[in-house]
Every structure is written in structure tokens, then in C-alpha cells.
Amino acid sequence: MSKSIAFEKIEKTEEFQDLKRRKYRFIFTVPVLFLIYYLLFIVMSAYAKPLMSSIVFGNFTFGYLFGISYYVVIWALAFIYVFKAKSYDRQVDDIIAKYGPKEEQEKGA
Amino acid sequence: MASAQLFGIILFGAIIALTMYVTYLASKRTTGTGDFYAAGRSLTGFQNGLAIAGDYLSAASFLGIAGLVALYGYDGFMYSIGWLMGYVIVLFIVAEPFRNSGNFTVADVISYRLKQRPVRTAGAVVTMAITMFYMISQLVGAGAIIHLLVGIPYTVSLIIVGVLMMIYVTLGGMLATSWVQIIKAVILMAAMLIMLAFIAIVFKFNLSSLFGTIINGGEIPGFGKVGGQGMEFLTPGALYSNPIDLLSLGITLILGTAGLSHLLVRFFTVPTAQAARTSVVWGMIIIGSFYFIIAIIGFSSASLVGSDAINEAGGGGNMAAPLLAQVLGGGEGTIGGELFMAGVSAVAFATIVAVVAGLVITGAGVFAHDIYTNVIKRGEVDSRKQFQVARITAFVIGVVSIILGILAENFNVAQLVTYAFAVGASSNLPVIIFSIYWRRFNTPGAVAAMLTGTITTVILILLSPNIMGDAAIYPLTNPGLFSIPLGFLAAVIVTLMTKPEDNDKMFAEMSVRAHTGLGAEK
Question: Residue B397 pLDDT > 90, yes or no?
């Protein structure tokens, strides 16, 4: 099956290079920023104890709310990713339609 | 008391019967290697998401983290946060291209355009190291917990768990393993939600008042005086005195998740990269909810059960969740309390069995597919023979890990799991990322990274305070801070120092396949 696909030709096309450029910029930047954001939590827990244990409202401390923020942020990132990935899927569909194997018309997995 | 133990045993029995039935159904559908290793790529994204959660949420999380929060407050809570964070890397960088470029094992991906035999051999060493660290921790936890809760001796409970998982894996393969994990995820989340509902009723649906009882103490009808640990309990520093150690642990957790072999092979059970994406998102929703709830369970246990009672039950706080169930159900000696506790114990049991089954099948896949078929026989094995070898390997891994588990009875369980993460982050992760994204990457670089990462991790563990005590040469309990940069550096330096491989054609093929799914295994 894979014999019939012109991998090298596809790899050199402007469309595929554009997909890679757009995709890489997004998929590497976000995790790096997130890693820094996560390390902030550890550093602040170690060196900003009074702030982390100060009450923000009710009986919630800043540290607890800061910790919970990670769940909110990571879920938000997951949905942003799915949204972005759908646009890559469309680009991929275009590439396959243009350069993909002709005898095999099924959508790229 | 006796009726509660009986109830516990009936629940154990019901869980075993259900999973055995699933295994029986799966065994009828498992006829070739594709079925055995990858469940015939028949899972949906949502099913695989549940299985990812079932694979990931171990007894160390359910019992161990509840205990850490209950005993150490804020520091336990901080520990609980790290476990979900690695999924950003899994989702953004690894899952989809990994699914598209592989077939059955991690080494399929990294050997795609590199030399088969050295890469597969080194990859097998890495996966075996991860599997063993993870496995021993699960089995030790299983033996101790079942012993504590049901009163069966440590060795006997270990053998029960071991035999069960061998049956699941050898008869039902990946399909049965996946369904055992799915069932476990559902049971575990249901148990957590029931506990959360009880907690919500006790604290009148007000999370703030739970923290109020911890800070100021309080009286709750039916529970008497509760909480009163004070502000200290919500201040950092109760558990971790060395911030550098914590940094090391944090980096290990966030980078290690994307390097866990048994988690990564789950992506081969779905038909497409899109389904792999969906499964990570579902996994993140379930796993995140789990860690959010487990911290509340821990804080509630601190408030309602109290640190003294948790410490008295032994096991480094492992009994915090079961004891909370007992108190919520009406207290010690009441039927409700004992039944609730037996129920939670049965859930802990199901948790362990599912995780262990996932580990065994990953180890068996690596030996049969990478070592036996591709390294020893150079790919010339019919799938029947390979299938047979995989089953025998699963059996052998089961027996070996039972023996290791018996020998390792007194090891610190939570620590062992983080060692598996450290191996994953410092040897699997650099190689997976570079082989997908870096054109120049070559075979010597891959082998160097995998061996450097694994060996450094193991050496630093041996030199750490956990093994050497006060005489430790390496001051941190977690090796990640050094072993992870070393693994990445070894990959880069050795690659740049050695000849480029003439594999542009293969890189083009892999790259197109990874990003478009063209030619991916269906």
C-alpha cells in the first residue's frame, strides 16, 4: 500500500512545508510556556510561602486556587489544541486530495 | 465486621467474574498479533480515553495521594497536581505522529528510519526498565493493601493479582486488557463520585467550609469535633524541605508521562490519529477530575478522620481514603461504615489488577515483537509463532514480577513509580521527539540517549538518599533533574559527532506519514 504513495514528492511540496511550519510553531511553543508556568508553582511554593498560604476569599488559600488553576488551564489548552488540530486536518485533506494516491480515495488517517 | 469482610469478598468476586467474562469474549476475537498487541485497532477515542485513565490511575494515586494530602496538607496537594500536567506534551507533541508512525511498540516508531537491531535492542532495555519499576511498585502496593484490607497474607494476595493479570493478558491480549482498564476506570470514578457526594452532604456543598474546619476546627453533627490542623496545614513545607528536590520531581512528572511505554502503546489500539487525539482529551478530562477529587478526599480525611487515626492505620497514610469511607458510612463497627470501606477496598483491588495487566502486555509486546521477531529472527517469523512467543513472555513476566514483588515487600511504593517516569523522560522522550522531528538524528544518537538516560537514572537512584541514607552521594531523591538533560544531551552530542545517516528518503516517508496519516497502519 505504502509503495503507491509519493512520500518524497509530498514532503517537498510547499503545502506540506507550510503545514509543518504552522504546526511546529504551535505544538512546541505551548508546552514550553506551560512547563514554565508549572515550574512557577513549585518555585513559589518553595519561596513565597506567606503568599501561598494567604486567604483569597472564604477559606481558600492562594496556593490552593493557584493549584486548581492548572486544571482549568490544561483543559483549556486541550480544547484549543483540538480546535487548532482541526485546521491542520483540513490542510492535510487538501494535500492528500492533491498529491495522495489516486487509486485509494479514503481519507488520510 | 465479618459481614463486611464477606461483602468485600463478594465484591472482589464480582469484579473478577466481570473481568473474566470480558477476557473470555476478547479471547474469541484475538486470533493474530494485531489483535493481541493492538486490540485489532478497534477501540474508539472515548473507549481508549477511559483505558488511558484506567492504565494511569494506579493504587499509588488512589490510596497514596489521598494519604499524602491527608497527612501533609498543602504539600500533598502540590504533589497531586503534577500527575496530569505531562499530558500537555502527550497531546501536543507525541500522540498523533506517534500513532501514525508506529505499529505495535515504541521501538517501531524510533526504528522507523534508523537501524533496526541496535535501536530495538536499546528500546527494549528502556521499556523493560520502565515496566519493572512500575510493576514492582504496583505489586508491592497490591500485596500490602489487600493484606491490610481483607486480611489475606501479603504473598498470597500478590500471587492472586499476578495470576489474574496473566490470565487477562495471555488469553485476552490487548482487547481484554483494554476492557479491564475501561471497567476499572468506570468503577474507580463511580466510587470517587459517591465519596464526593457524601463529603458534599457533610459539608453542605461548601468546599470553603471543609477548609474552614481544617483551619479553625469545628463541630459537625454525627462526627463530633473535626479538623483543627490550623493554617500550618495549608502552608507549603510539611513534606518537602528541599525545593530543588521538588523541582526535580516536577520536571520528571511533566516530561515522564510522554515517555511511559505502556501508556504510549495505547495509541496503537485506535484506528486513526484523530481518535488518538480524542482519546488523550478524554483521558485528560477523567484523570484531571480524578486528581481534583482525590485532593478533596484527602483534605476531608484529614478533617473527618484526623491525622492520628490515619497514622495509626499504618502504611504511610495509604488508609486515608478507606478510613474516610468508613467514617462517612457511619463509623467503625457500623454496617454502613464497614460496607463502604469494603467497597472502596474492592475498587483499590480492581485498580491494581488493571494497571498490572497493561504493564505485562507492554513488556510481552516488546520482547516478542522487538527482540524475538526483529532482532533475533530478523523479521522472518510468521504471526502465529510470534503470537505464541508473546503469550509465553507474558507468562514469564508475570512469574518474575511476582517473585520481585515478594522480594521488594518493604520498598517505598510512591517513589518507585516516579523512577519509572524518570526513565521514560530521560530515555524514551528524547528519542521519540528527535526521531519524529529532527532530520539529522541518527542511530548512534538514539542508542546513546536511551542507554545514557536509563543507566544514569539507575545509578543516581542507587546513589540517592533512598538507598544510601545519610551517606548519599547524589543529594536528591529524584534523578530527573540530571538524568533528563543528560539523555537529551547524549542524543544531540552523539548525533552531531557521528556521520549523518543517508536516510533522507525514509525521513521524508516518516514525516509525511506522521503528519498526514498516509500509509499509517490501520
Answer: no
